[in-house]
Amino acid sequence: MNEISVSQTYRLLEPGPIVLVTTSLEGTPNVMTMGFHMMIQHAPPLIGCVIGPWDFSHRNLKKTGECVIAIPAVDLAETVVDIGNCSGDTVDKFERFSLRTRPAKDVAAPLLVDCLANIECRVADPSFVDRYNLFILEAKRIWIDESRKERRTMHHRGDGSFTVDGGTLDLRKRMVKWRHLP
């Protein structure tokens, strides 16, 4: 075994797919690409998201307390990377990348029509934001596009490369301890 720098930890433990986060402040929507997120608990469903103050969305989320987490599939890979390479304070990303939206039910941030799923969220606990840039979000509504043909998601490896989900290994029958969960 070879030792590598602990600064590379995130490359080994990245928990979930790359997502897009939409916000809206005073009627102006924004979208960013995010890779640092995790499930915190099942009920109520809490999601931890790291969004730094260098991201235009940080200010929007901090002020409004709400966002949408949209889960893109691999067919949007280049767009997802390009969204992450510009800032909403200088670019209308919805126009530049021809992002199709529809209104959410409970939050002002828009849903992204071309994504697999959209999760409407509200900040549940702001106490970690100033110290760690960690937003604790509660999922309020989930929208899924069951008709979408491309369903593979992408996982960032931290160096500009991605792992793409493939097939599914179904071990639900073995998960006896967790059967009571929906």
TrEMBL record:
One of its GO terms (molecular function) is oxidoreductase activity. The keyword Phosphoprotein does not apply. Residues 11-163 form the Flavin reductase like domain. Coiled coil: none annotated. Its cofactor is FMN. Its EC number is 1.5.1.-. Gene3D superfamilies: Electron Transport, Fmn-binding Protein, Chain A. Keywords: Flavoprotein, Oxidoreductase. Pfam families: Flavin_Reduct. The keyword Plastid does not apply. It comes from the Bacteria. Belongs to the flavoredoxin family. This is Flavin reductase family protein. It comes from Rhizobium indigoferae.
